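[step 3/7] inverse_fold.run input=structure_tokens len=172
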């Protein structure tokens, strides 16, 4: 039997929930979901103001708080706390909890590929209005595609205690 617990439903959710799940277990996997659509805009603005930000800043201290239990109980953590800067998030977790093995899943940020997608003829029209993305191209601040389960499973297969990603499907 595999025991999966979800300890976070949005950025700002009750921080004691994941702590209680790990401490009171038993669980095998702890899933933490930080990213709603509005959250992506918030973390992108933070990264624009400071390139070292752009992630759920309460996640690294949470991992530091739980590091000993994560290691001793064999709990594996999967979180989309990386927002738009998963590498910076992982760097901060490593600084605060160096005993944890961390994997980062990248690939959700497609902002730098929008122009080439348009150039290749991909429509990318607004789902509600049908308006082409070219009409608002200069206003686009962030563009992310959902990551599925396979990259997360591959990251787990490296033996990571903690997998940090950006935008992921809820089912992943």
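[step 3/7] decode complete -> sequence:
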């Amino acid at each position: 039997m595999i025991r999966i617990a979800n300890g976070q439903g949005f950025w700002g959710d009750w921080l004691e929930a994941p702590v209680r799940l790990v401490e009171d277990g038993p669980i095998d996997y702890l899933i933490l979901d930080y990213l709603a659509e509005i959250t992506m805009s918030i973390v992108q603005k933070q990264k624009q103001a400071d390139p070292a930000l752009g992630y759920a800043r309460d996640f690294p201290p949470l991992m530091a708080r739980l590091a000993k239990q994560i290691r001793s109980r064999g709990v594996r953590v999967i979180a989309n706390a990386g927002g738009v800067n998963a590498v910076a998030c992982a760097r901060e977790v490593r600084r605060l909890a160096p005993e944890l093995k961390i994997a980062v899943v990248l690939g959700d940020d497609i902002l730098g590929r929008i122009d080439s997608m348009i150039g290749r003829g991909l429509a990318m029209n607004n789902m509600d209005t049908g308006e082409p993305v070219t009409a608002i191209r200069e206003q686009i601040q962030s563009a992310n595609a959902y990551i599925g389960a396979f990259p997360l499973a591959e990251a787990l297969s490296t033996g990571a205690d903690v997998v940090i990603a950006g935008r992921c499907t809820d089912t992943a």
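[step 4/7] annotate
Residues 110-143 form one domain.
The chain is about 35% helix and 10% strand.
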